[in-house]
Write a structure and sequence with these properties.
With about 110 residues, the chain is an alpha+beta fold. The chain has a single domain, classed as Arc Repressor Mutant, subunit A, CATH 1.10.10.10. It is built from 5 helices and 3 strands; from the N terminus they run ααβααββα.
């Protein structure tokens, strides 16, 4: 994950971290990588819901997934945390704000 983020990337990162399930996913993966079914059991949520949260975290470059073939020939998708560290301060937000793309900008603004 890049140290310097533009405004859109910063918003994506903050959005990814703004959900309690996503924080729990990072917690569960911080000790070891896990496959989807195992992670769904640990969190007590369905795999489809889990995949939605995993996608957000992958898009923010906080986790990564890889498929592997087990001994039984079954393909399993494993996820792990991409080590990250970021600083959030007023200057960084001010710099990033200048690069945010506003999707629904009102006329006259």
């Amino acid at each position: 994950m890049k140290n310097e983020k533009n405004g859109n990337e910063l918003l994506q990162l903050l959005e990814a971290l703004s959900n309690p399930y996503r924080l729990k996913i990072i917690e569960a993966l911080s000790g070891e990588r896990q496959y989807v079914s195992q992670l769904a059991r640990v969190l007590g949520i369905s795999r489809p819901l889990l995949y939605l949260h995993l996608k957000k975290l992958e898009e923010a470059e906080l986790i990564k997934g890889a498929e592997e073939r087990g001994q039984d020939g079954k393909i399993m998708k494993y996820f792990e945390v991409i080590p990250f560290r970021f600083e959030l301060n007023d200057r960084m937000i001010a710099d990033a704000a200048g690069t945010v793309t506003l999707k629904n900008k009102e006329k006259g603004d």
